[in-house]
Amino acid sequence: QVQLVESGGGLVQSGGSLRLSCATSGIIFRFYVMGWYRQAPGKQRELVATITNGGSTNYADSVKGRFTISRDNAKNTVYLQMNSLKPEDTAVYYCNAKLPDRGYWGKGTLVTVSL
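^ thats the sequence. predicted structure below, dont judge the formating
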């Protein structure tokens, strides 16, 4: 059974930091492209960042220079370090594990950034 479990969300003031974690099980983690997506109220889910099995990263323009995605293959976990948070970063953040022929989602963790 595949599980992706996000944690680390919460309420933070503008300018603050949070670190999200996504612990996985039931997949061969090191093979997967891992990603973080987010969905704000009334908006579509959007890409935040991805990291390949080789460690190459990609970021949405809106988070470049503020967010850092990383992975620990020994712990089957992907992280998202979020600095200089803004109110517009408020959303539910979802973890994604992807191969060419399959993909899995976590249930999400809520990040709320106050003024």
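The CA atoms of residues 35 and 50 lie 4 Å apart.
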